[in-house]
Amino acid sequence: MEQVTLRANVPAARATPGQQVVRVAHVDSVPLFQQGVAAVLHRDPRTVWVGAAASTAATVNLCQSAKPNVLLVDADADPGAHLCRLLSGLHPDLVVVVLFRQSARSGGEVERARQAGARGFLPREIDPNRLPSALSLALENGFYIDPSISPLLKNSGHAKNSGTLLSRREQEVLGLIAEGMTAKRIGNRLGVSEETVKTHIRRILRKLEARDRAHAVARAFHAGVLPPR
User: Fold this and answer.
1) Contact 120/141 with Cβ under 8 angstroms?
2) How many degrees, rounded to 5, is the angle at CA 114 between CA 28 and CA 52?
3) Along the 229 residues of the chain, how does pLDDT read in single tens digits?
């Protein structure tokens, strides 16, 4: 059967001045769930639903024509994270966010998605009212990890020992990163420059042996460097 891409008429940006509009394309094989996500995103002024697809070819065409900046992918529709890897390679600025049902949170599926280029990790049972905020934070910060997902990312035995080497300020910065804050907002909160915050982040990544901020937060939760939220 031919996979059909559903595309909505894309409304004008409705976000507040200075806020980036989150243009969301959705990958899911269930039309009812596609329409449910569309309804949730249409209600929020920060998000614009640009369409949905159920196959690799349809998703590639949708991303080329509708120019989303966030791709929301159901893990069941992308076994092995092949689509995630493909779209991350074709569109490096595209933020791929993956929804995991309970059965997909074992066997390394979450870590496989991260290695394939995913930058957002959400449980499929996420409160619909939280979905727009999570997607907005994923786009703004370049990553977002739901606390229920973070322990499932791969962690080495060095993380806990490395975490003890974090200074008090570095732990504070890491905690604010986990809350979804950008370097600029963290600087405003702490009364330091954005560049100082970025220096702290580089040191945190090195000490935690993390590839990026998302990985650092996940490893910190897993190792107990950050308390569970």
Assistant:
1) no
2) 20
3) 344 445 444 444 455 555 689 999 999 989 999 999 999 999 999 999 999 999 999 999 999 999 999 999 999 999 889 999 999 889 988 999 999 988 777 668 888 888 898 989 999 999 999 999 999 988 887 778 887 887 776 654 444 445 556 778 888 899 898 888 899 999 999 999 999 999 999 888 888 878 888 888 877 776 666 765 5
Q: Where are the alpha helices (DSSP H) in 121-182?
A: 131-141, 158-163, 168-178
- Is the overall model pTM greater than 0.70, yes or no? no
Both tokens of 9, joined, read 């008429």
First vs last C-alpha separation in the chain: 44
